[in-house]
Description:
- The chain is an alpha+beta fold.
- The chain has a single domain (7-66), classed as Multidrug-efflux Transporter Regulator, Chain: A, Domain 2 (Orthogonal Bundle), CATH 1.10.1660.
- It contains three helices and three strands, in the order βααββα.
- The protein has helices at residues 10-17, 21-29, 46-66, and strands at residues 7-8, 36-38, 41-45.
- It has a three-stranded antiparallel beta sheet with strand order 1-3-2.
- A hairpin with a 2-residue loop joins strand 2 (36-38) and strand 3 (41-45).
- It is globular, with a radius of gyration of 14 Å.
Amino acid sequence: MIMEINYLNINDVSKKLNIAKSTLYAYVGKNKIPFIKLGGKLLFPESDLTNWLNSMKQAVISEREVNK
């Protein structure tokens, strides 16, 4: 079974996350966000991006629980 992976470009991710492209480039530079560099272009596997976002959400919830 072949699994199809959907890749987003820098503009797609910037719009989806509602952040500036410069912020996104900074995340890439610090390896804070999952990405692939292919032929000089940045690509973001949509499933990896979703997992990354979910992990961020869980981290925030955990911090709130600790501070109760």
